[in-house]
Amino acid sequence: MSDAPEISRTSIVKLARGVRLHKDSARGRMVLLAPERAMAVDDIALAIVEAFDGEHTLSQIAAGFAEKFDAPVTQIANDITAFVHELSIRRMLEIVE
């Protein structure tokens, strides 16, 4: 059994309390900082994390990226859902709804 909460494409998420994006000047990359843990993020992960505003569903975020990048919405939605699942296991996200 997983520690992650149930996530669907209608889920609305935001960064958990105490989690923030931070520019790691020494390494020249962005990281997600949380109490006693950190996770490096690439440009794609950064764009996804920045879209987690606590107001839009994962489907809405995926649709926006599909339009912006002219990519299949199903593939983007699957990728975002998998990423959210991973972040929720690490307790870096809060599921608003």
UniProtKB/TrEMBL annotation:
This is Pyrroloquinoline quinone biosynthesis protein D. NCBIfam families: PQQ_PqqD. It holds the Pfam family PqqD. Pathway: Cofactor biosynthesis; pyrroloquinoline quinone biosynthesis. InterPro entries: PQQD, PqqD_bac, PqqD_sf. It comes from Sinorhizobium kostiense. Keywords: PQQ biosynthesis. The lineage of its organism: Bacteria, Pseudomonadati, Pseudomonadota, Alphaproteobacteria, Hyphomicrobiales. The keyword Magnesium does not apply. Monomer. Interacts with PqqE.
